[in-house]
């Protein structure tokens, strides 16, 4: 990776990934793009609607990009509210990004998700290669995306790579429209209100990961020796699996007065029920040394510390 174009650069992952890439590869070598602009944007930035193939091509070409990191997409809960829009954005954007990468011979990364699994997938220790019959539009998009990335690799020799991200937790940019968002919201509410109402029911396990591990995973996979990659696209990766009362108990170790109750949202609960409890990341470990540093305990300490500073709150007891 020397000249990198990132789509969806202002999204949950993109806004942190761009900073990390710039610190490693040089500010002028990472072109951030998004459909909107924020006023304080630093470094190279261009407005890009990923459904506009010509503009995507022109931007990548003019930038002399050798790598495309395609992040622009709707998450699971938002996609379920507007499935047709999700199809057009998630699949249209991905097809354009793959085509531009084929035309310009760019190394390519796009994320899949634990949402690519469905109710008939084995729920525990979910294998890398297994049944994938998701019941959400997001999941349908992710499975189709995994297959398209494999196709562009075998058919055109494109260097496509990807991971199945679990829920990602970060203190920098809030997530927008995912099923796993509760695991971020809970930290904000614990600090600002001392209480949280979970829209996910007690006992619902989902895979999760702290953002620094997710960013490192993208870079490690992109820098890995391609000849050692058997799966290439959509490696299972997870750092932890927990259910709402476990994250609440972890927060209570630092904020003893914190309380949690439940008001389950049927739509997001149904999505969560269709996903695995805990996936098996061993193919990623074996093929490119995937390694997550944060578990629930160390993530909670770091999240609360960083959020306290960000929200200008008193130090935790
Ligand atoms: C979501 O909840 O939609 C995402 C994901 C797991 O892909 N965080």
Beta-sheet strand percentage? 15-25%
Counting DSSP H or I runs of 4 or more residues, the number of helices is: 11
Mean pLDDT: 96
CATH topology of the largest domain: Rossmann fold
Q: How would you sum up the global shape?
A: globular
Class inferred from helices and paired strands:
alpha/beta
Ligands in the model, by name, code or SMILES, are: 2-amino-3-ketobutyric acid
What is the element layout, followed by pairings?
Blueprint: E1 4-7, H1 14-25, E2 30-34, E3 45-47, H2 53-62, E4 67-70, H3 76-81, H4 83-104, E5 107-109, E6 112-113, E7 124-126, H5 137-156, E8 160-161, E9 163-165, E10 167-169, H6 182-192, E11 195-198, E12 206-210, H7 211-223, E13 235-236, E14 240-242, H8 244-252, E15 259-262, H9 266-274, E16 278-279, H10 282-288, H11 296-310
Parallel strand pairs: 1-2, 1-4, 2-3, 4-5, 5-8, 6-9, 7-16, 9-13, 10-12, 11-15
Antiparallel strand pairs: 12-14
Helix pairs in contact: 2-4, 4-5, 6-8
This protein binds 2-amino-3-ketobutyric acid.
Q: What are the main properties of this structure?
A:
alpha/beta, UDP-galactose 4-epimerase, domain 1, 42% helix, binds 2-amino-3-ketobutyric acid, globular, 6-stranded parallel beta sheet, 11 helices, 3-stranded parallel beta sheet, 317 residues, 2 domains, Rossmann fold
Any overview of this molecule?
The protein is an alpha/beta fold and 317 residues long. It folds into two domains: 4-166 and 209-236, 3-Layer(aba) Sandwich (Rossmann fold); 169-208 and 240-277 and 294-310, UDP-galactose 4-epimerase, domain 1, CATH 3.90.25. 42% of the residues lie in helices and 16% in strands. The protein has helices at residues 14-25, 53-62, 76-81, 83-104, 137-156, 182-192, 211-223, 244-252, 266-274, 282-288, 296-310; strands at 4-7, 30-34, 45-47, 67-70, 107-109, 112-113, 124-126, 160-161, 163-165, 167-169, 195-198, 206-210, 235-236, 240-242, 259-262, 278-279. The strands form five sheets. It has a six-stranded parallel β-sheet with strand order 3-2-1-4-5-8, sandwiched between helices. The protein has a three-stranded parallel β-sheet with strand order 6-9-13. Strands 10-12-14 form a three-stranded mixed β-sheet. Strand 1, helix 1 and strand 2 form a beta-alpha-beta unit. Helix 6 packs parallel to helix 8. It is globular. The termini are far apart. It binds 2-amino-3-ketobutyric acid. Residues 75-76, 113-115, 165-167, 178-180 line the site of 2-amino-3-ketobutyric acid.
């Amino acid at each position: 990776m020397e000249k990198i174009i990132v789509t969806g650069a202002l999204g949950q992952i993109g806004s942190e990934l761009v900073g990390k890439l710039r610190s490693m590869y040089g500010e002028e070598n990472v072109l951030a793009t998004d459909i909107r602009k924020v006023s304080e944007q630093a470094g190279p930035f261009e407005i890009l609607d990923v459904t506009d193939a010509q503009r995507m091509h022109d931007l990548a070409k003019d930038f002399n990009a050798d790598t495309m990191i395609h992040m622009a997409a709707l998450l699971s809960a938002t996609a379920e509210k507007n499935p047709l829009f999700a199809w057009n954005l998630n699949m249209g954007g991905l097809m354009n990004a793959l085509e531009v990468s084929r035309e310009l011979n760019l190394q390519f990364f796009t994320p899949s998700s634990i949402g690519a699994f469905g109710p008939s997938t084995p729920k525990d220790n979910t294998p890398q290669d297994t049944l994938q019959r998701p019941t959400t539009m997001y999941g349908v998009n992710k499975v189709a995306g995994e297959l398209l990335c494999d196709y562009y690799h075998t058919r055109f020799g494109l260097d496509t790579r990807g991971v199945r991200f679990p829920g990602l937790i970060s203190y920098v940019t809030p997530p927008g429209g995912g099923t796993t968002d509760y695991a971020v919201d809970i930290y904000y509410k614990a600090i600002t209100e001392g209480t949280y109402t979970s829209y996910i029911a007690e006992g619902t396990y989902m895979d999760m990961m702290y953002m620094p591990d997710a960013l490192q995973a993208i870079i490690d996979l992109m820098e890995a020796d391609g000849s050692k990659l058997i799966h290439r696209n959509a490696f299972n990766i997870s750092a932890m699996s927990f259910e709402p009362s476990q994250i609440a108990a972890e927060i209570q170790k630092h904020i003893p007065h914190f309380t949690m109750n439940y008001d389950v949202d049927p739509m997001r609960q149904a999505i969560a029920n269709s996903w695995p409890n805990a996936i098996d990341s061993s193919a990623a470990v074996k093929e490119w040394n995937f390694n997550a540093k944060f578990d629930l305990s160390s993530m909670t300490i770091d999240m609360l510390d960083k959020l306290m500073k960000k929200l200008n709150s008193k130090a935790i007891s």
